[in-house]
What we know:
462 residues; Beta-lactamase; nine-stranded antiparallel sheet; eight-stranded antiparallel barrel; DUF7586
Amino acid sequence: xxxxxxxxxxxxxxxxxxxxxxxxxxxxxxxxxxxxxxxxxxxxxxxxxxxxxxxxxxxxxxxxxxxxxxxxxxxxxxxxxxxxxxxxxxxxxxxxxxxxxxxxxxxxxxxxxxxxxxxxxxxxxxxxxxxxxxxxxxxxxxxxxxxxxxxxxxxxxxxxxxxxxxxxxxxxxxxxxxxxxxxxxxxxxxxxxxxxxxxxxxxxxxxxxxxxxxxxxxxxxxxxxxxxxxxxxxxxxxxxxxxxxxxxxxxxxxxxxxxxxxxxxxxxxxxxxxxxxxxxxxxxxxxxxxxxxxxxxxxxxxxxxxxxxxxxxxxxxxxxxxxxxxxxxxxxxxxxxxxxxxxxxxxxxxxxxxxxxxxxxxxxxxxxxxxxxxxxxxxxxxxxxxxxxxxxxxxxxxxxxxxxxxxxxxxxxxxxxxxxxxxxxxxxxxxxxxxxxxxxxxxxxxxxxxxxxxxxxxxxxx
Length: 462
């Protein structure tokens, strides 16, 4: 068996643009290879396009039956992204700043000078694991006990110096959410994230139907059941169970279909690289609660997850509005390339068509400002973008290119590139971009160029 196109439950509707038969067969074969070669007891996967499930596949058995899109598996560290979303809601409401030291909200926390943003991005230098027994395989301790066990020795690096993944950091963020909301962290996640997105298959502990977690013997085809416990204070780092249907909704969220839970700009901020974890030519990194991956020109955001007996991953490409995910009940065995291979198959078999171009109404005054401008002797092009935005970029590409959005006071705010956050002012004979003056002609003597313009000289003039 096992492939289904279309409806998988939750708030996602049947995909009118579901993949074709040949694409579905290629996707299922790729999934089947991982299940067979990795000796995975069961695995489910899905492709999401434009907020809808375009393909669902399953291999293996759960309780003697093929798993469905509503069969639960453990999410592991994907839980962290859900906690991060509530933290970002608190920021947007003004309840905290990302630059706040976490000690402002959790006075007993170790390294109280570490900022909320650094904890979100695993750059705070906190220890990776709690000072308890192997927390993923044993019952958890209460928050007060975890806090009492943590001390300055559990800060391993100078805050901000490097990426160092910290499960402990997300235990602290879960407690931060609980204190600022006045309810347990999971209640806040459920009321503010899960319920509004229709993710009703996502729960703290398993419900029927769910997969049992297994380890597969490395040298024989036999299974070892893995334990499952309430992680207590460490639960925000990896407690939750979910289904392919719910994880598909989360993939759509990460791709930009936020359902009003967060502003699209906030989710885009979560996807921005805060750190990299694999060297100079980076392919992997971390934002604010979201892992990042670059693959074949794509910029993907999502998260991996693992707990004893379970593996899961979700990736979303907001530029293409596509997402991929899998959930499996095995401690090891799923290849790291599975999901990007599924993306590559969709791209090869059914590449997205570009949006049709259509003319749009524009402000005549802005239209007169478009065209060639010069930063000193360097030519730039000012263009009007759809939606009334502006783009200023060097002729030939590269360099200090930025987009700008209008503000109520008549100025323009830089969105990205070198001039992100900076102010652009338009005048008939020049552009003032954070004190840099752009002129129609190189160093136009009639424009207010700082330092003055003495005029161009031929070679040999003294």
